[in-house]
Protein: Exonuclease domain-containing protein
Organism: Kocuria varians
Amino acid sequence: MASAQLPDDPDQQALFDAPAPPRAPDDDAAPPVPEQPALFDAPETGAQRGTQNPAKTDASVQDTGVQGKGTPEADVRHPAEQDTPALHTHPTVDPEASWTEGPRACFDLETTGRDPQQARIVTASVVLVTADGDVLREWEWLADPGIEIPEEAAAVHGVSTERARAEGRPAAEVTAELGEVLAGFWREGLPVLAFNAAYDLTVLTRECERHGLPVPAPKLVLDPFVLNKQVHRYRRGKRTLGALCEEYGVVLDAAHTSAADALATERLATALGERFVELRQPAARLHELQIGWAAEQAASLQEYFRRKDPGAVVDGTWPVHPRP
């Protein structure tokens, strides 16, 4: 990737076998600088039409490989077989309580490449859990991105161009439904967790623009990647989802499938909240804090890279990168 476009998704570094960028000072050395479970249905929108996840081999709900509570309720029927969306009401979410005390959703994308400005959605998953971590519902999509899926990308997430064209749904439909589900959660005041959210949400935003669709406004986003760098800033080593799950005892057996990665993101965030009391805050407050934290983290990384490349630029906008 060019010096002005550094990798946005740590878990996508395997794409194209590109060498990982030099680790920032906060990864390698310390620089001198600083009940009841909510029993309710998820939004019954047209988005509940997910196709089979690439990791699944039949129409049944398969274990995602992530250790956690509950059994996902996934809808893998063909869109024509869907029930008519029903009106629903979420229980009241206390905006003053810690996000750990209420229901939350998590989501993940697998895509065609590392650049979020150009990448297209291949698979997407959204998982809704209760305050206790029990899985209520799972949405899954397989899209035909409309372009060739590079072999290096297919080797990571397991979906080839041929499969996407044969089994995937039109990218515009998948993007619209995914955006509708996420927007519904934010309207209800539910936080959405995404690991390195700036990658996934930038991909989603560009896809919405590409297809002339409404862009969901990310009101409440929690990002374990940003959170971990803030509370454990001098940690050595990689900060990929897999590496952090291993450190915090979250089992992730099906990495690089969107369903497994999405649920692992929630389990990781919960583990961080249990260990670091400063993260047990209302979602809205934590969302605002992450905007500043991400900017500071990017500035530190940019300073590090400029030791060798004076023109290096690291985009610290969060949770969505603007167009370059």
Notes: The first helix runs from residue 25 to 28. The chain has one domain: 35-305. Confidence is low (pLDDT under 50) at residues 1-7, 11-90.
